[in-house]
Fold:
Amino acid sequence: MKRAENIKKRAGETKRRNIPFYLDEEAVRGLIRRVAGEGYASLFRIRRRESESGMDEYDLYCEGGHVCIDATSGVAAAVAFNRYLGEYCGYYVGFITTSGTLPPNPPLFEDKKSERSVFHYRYLFNFCTFAYTYAFSGWEDWERILDRALLSGYNLILNPVGCESVWKKLLEELGYTGQQIRKFLVNPAFLPFLWMGNMSDYGGEYPEWWFDARSELARKITNRLREFGAAAMLPGYCGMVPDDFRAHFPKSAPFDQGLWNGLRRPAYLLPGDPMFDAVADAYYEIQRRTVGEAHYWSVDPFHEGGISEGVDLKSFAEAIMAKMKKHDADAVWFLQGWQANPRRELLSVLDAGEVLVGDLLADEKGGGGDNFGDTPWLYCNVVNFGGQHVMRGNVRRLLSAPFSFAADKDSTMVGVGFMPEGVEDGEIFFDIFASVSVREKPLPLEDYLRGFIRRRYGGQSAAAEEAWAILAEKVYLADSSVYPMESVFCARPSLDVDRVSTWGRGCKEGTAERMELVRATRLLFSDYDSLKDAPSYRFDLVDLARQCNAALGWDAVYAFLRAYKAGDKEGVSHWTHRFFELFSLQEAIVASDKHFLLSKWLERAKAQGKNELEKRWFEFYARVQITTWSDSRTGWFHEYAAKEWQGMLSDFYRPRWETFVSMLELSLYGGASLPAYRDYDREIMFAYGRKSYPLVAEGDPGKAVGEFLSFCEREKLG
Structure:
């Protein structure tokens, strides 16, 4: 047997041992009840069947007046139910939106649907998702989130919730005081970056009740997944300790990890350090007691630039794996394939049956170009960074490439994974993963889009199909999109501005793709009267018009900056007027849909607090995350999580641009140079604000998008 085939075979055996096929009829019926109501739950007959292929499978059919699901697991049964909702009920259940009206009586049908997966693993979430979207989510949110995940076919889901509770108890056992522990921790809006070893000591002044509450939430999440034959992945241990560890244990010699974008990284204990075994053992024991057991451990040493020079990576990996295996004989080490990680020297000493790599860059070079040194890996996709509303991703490739790798005898790919940093937009990619998770063959793009529109909008629309075809063929072409499309309205103004986040690639001027966006927006809008009752349609229309308008805004900015540099007063006046006209249109567009409201983020943060001071604490860091990102040390990270939300546009971004334009005009008319100012000092004041924002959408999306398209027609755009 070829090496790649043997590796895939061993990975499959590990999956079936760690995530055995399991179906709890009442658990599946509970999901049906939550999604569709008792009338639907009582009509379904759910039975477990054996897997003929070693993969998840299901049959969906009607018999004796019942809708029948025979499935290998609760996850496969949930996928079958989701297919029933979409194909026979015209009901769409997405991570962001839900559309359609369920028929009063569950429809019966004559044909039989059968599918099987070709992926052992279907993995969900990025550590960052637990900052940019789920930082303040409780069980009511998580029950809904998990229902969507199960309907989409995920059988392995990251659950770092409550990891801060593990660290609190660990450091208490090591003799740290409450004040010292809080100095190590970071605020909920930034916790994933502590879990990944990127930062510490930022806003960790937690109320005492938080820790037990989060531990309980973590256990609920893990237990719900087990009910469906799915598994949780927990953060593992790779030697991380507070950077003041040596002051507490003088015989220890933690390995300094330096800074990450200006913030102090935690240090590492290396194997052989007198405290390594004791701390690692305590971590896993406390993890088990606090949030429960797991067989999958996410551990990324030296993440995003951590210092590994001088470290024997092979012995380091062996020691990390040995600690996992000591506390969990069936442990699997999951590593993110991102930037320089995972190092091949590290992978070379790990057993192929005990490791998985999630390839976040699979769209660019699946398996890192070498199957990650003959390691089982997952075809993963990020799509969203920082929760920004930016159209990125490759629709056509994601529909087909995972199946190609699964069929390739020389590939060690054993599953798929969806790892967005935020769950804010790009719902088509959530839908694609749901469509491919338990399916044997890929759908052609045209067939997929036709079904997507029918499920999502509640009917067929030739114009909508043409609009989505444009997006698939002209816009969604690469992981970072055909061209960078960060919104100019969120950019920090300057004479050479060309991007929002510092990691952006720079936005071009006057590209042909802008006109394709206008054309797609006009097409999608053309069936507004017949599709407007579908919330998913309204969300897509608003998001597309928002993206289109943001792209056009760059042209106006570049034009008035050129005019300023040329001393053209009339040009500055003309193009700044156009820019703010676009800005006003954008404010109306995003205000018309509830998913683009600042209030939803701030109110969820404030709801965590049990008194006024706690509410202010949670809200402050929620505001920081979406503006300056953290404190003045991290100038590189400003706007990483920029949000094109109603409230943000009017109270944070627009005043910034108005101030900058006033500076340009006064400089131009008075002949003086532009005054310098510290952006951080001005911007952090928004985080201290206490203004409340509307809880419901204002205006009509049809009117807002119609006015934008009228502007485009007037200006002969598209």
